[in-house]
Design goal:
The protein is α/β, with parallel strands linked by helices and 404 residues long. It contains 11 helices and 19 strands. Helix content is 29%, strand content 23%. The strands form 5 sheets. Strands 4-3-2-1-15-16 form a 6-stranded mixed beta sheet, with helices on one face. The model has no long low-confidence stretch (mean pLDDT 90).
Length: 404
């Protein structure tokens, strides 16, 4: 079975109020081209189709048009889509019956029939090019640990997630009489995964162990972590494909989709990647933080025609001048680049050698101003300027006159 594994599209994401539909449409077009070249048996999309749970009409149309182009690129291919933590499971499933006619299976939530789980929705038989079954996909949408069904009276709340994954794989095994390859989909955070550059301010999740996701799959198609990686300890059987487009400036790694070939059940997955080109790359300029005036000169000399999002990398000692953003706007006027924000790195000040500890008697003999000067020197690494000393002395004099 040949699988195209992708996830975390985050359609509708805006970068510092800049519309990214051009980039996202470009990705979907590239994905259709890859599908046409690779001709997979199945494409699995492991969650976070949208960036917002209430995507705009334009974003939903982009998704629909993109899926239709992908289907047309390989009409025999099955597409399996699961909801991520950014998606609204109910909205994602609204037109799932219609998508069935295009071999697209959309799983937004765990469906139940009374107290029992409806496994038919989550276990999908994948037909091969010859019309015979090529394998199975066990599709698990995003769910928080406490929201997994309790399958029997003997399952504790702490065990419900791991028991559910194993039950899903066991049920898949019962249907897999021909012992074909099995792909498990999940959208969650696995312990030990590399989260480099990822911002979890919107909907982070608890970590789970790889072992808690059960046994019985040949490939675990993961979503949620943006850095592409094959998990250590999985013996090449578990992978995050990563985001096809960077969601933040700190996602500096290559972005791609994953192609997986599994020859037979129990076989070692053969994993390759196909790169995604971003027409609007994210650039931190310059690479290392420098004082604002130097960074501004670098921006002024940046090529006018380059389509790039830019984050200015500035080294500061105290604070930025109030007119910094105005100067940056002037420097980018007439350029194709899009300025996003200034990343400030505070200069490491040399710490003065710690002064010897004072005795109680010495403190009593010191004036309030001497104590203030000593504290300032230890905290700031430099002597208090004379203007501040004068001001403090005036305050001390006023306080003493009131006490008198």
């Amino acid at each position: 079975m040949k699988i195209l594994h992708t996830s975390d599209w985050h359609l509708g994401h805006a970068l510092y109020n800049y519309d990214r539909s051009e980039e996202q449409t470009s990705f979907l077009n590239q994905l259709a081209e890859i599908v046409q070249e690779e001709q997979p048996d199945v494409m699995v999309v492991s969650g976070d189709i949208y960036h917002y749970s209430t995507p705009s009409a334009a974003t939903q149309k982009m998704y629909t048009d993109g899926l239709l182009r992908i289907h047309q690129a390989c009409p025999s291919m099955t597409i399996v889509i699961t909801a991520g933590n950014h998606d609204s499971s109910s909205k994602l499933e609204i037109d799932s019956n219609l998508w069935d006619h295009f071999r697209v299976k959309v799983i937004g939530h765990i469906e139940r029939c009374g107290s029992a789980v409806s496994w038919d929705k989550q276990i999908i038989e994948i037909p091969g090019k010859d019309g015979h079954p090529a394998g199975y996909v066990a599709a698990m949408p995003h769910a928080y640990p406490q929201n997994f069904p309790i399958l029997n009276d003997h399952t504790s709340r702490e065990e419900r997630q791991s028991r559910f994954f194993q039950a899903l794989l066991d049920e898949t095994g019962k249907r897999n009489a021909q012992q074909l390859p099995v792909v498990l989909m999940a959208h969650l955070s696995v312990e030990g995964s590399d989260r480099t550059g990822q911002d979890d301010s919107a909907g982070g999740m608890e970590f789970v162990s790889l072992s808690s996701l059960g046994k019985g799959y040949d490939y675990l198609a993961l979503g949620h972590i943006h850095c592409p990686q094959t998990l250590k300890g999985s013996e090449n059987h578990a992978r995050y494909c990563g985001t096809p487009l960077p969601v933040s400036f700190d996602e500096t790694y290559p972005h791609s989709v994953t192609i997986v070939q599994i020859r037979h059940q129990g076989g070692q997955p053969e994993i390759t990647t196909r790169s995604i080109r971003n027409p609007w790359p994210l650039l931190t300029l310059p690479a290392a933080p420098v004082p604002f005036d130097e960074a501004l000169k670098t921006l002024e000399s940046y090529p006018d025609h380059n389509q790039t999002y830019i984050r200015l990398n500035v080294l500061i000692r105290d604070y930025l001048a109030p007119d910094c953003n105005e100067k940056v706007s002037a420097a980018t006027r007439g350029k194709a680049c899009r300025f996003c924000y200034i990343k400030c790195t505070r200069e490491q000040q040399e710490q003065a050698t710690p002064e010897a500890a004072l005795t109680i008697q010495e403190v009593k003999e010191m004036s309030p101003l001497d104590i203030a000067r000593r504290y300032y020197r230890e905290a700031e690494g430099e002597d208090m300027d004379e203007e501040l000393c004068t001001l403090m002395q005036e305050i001390i004099t006023q306080v003493r006159s009131k006490d008198a």
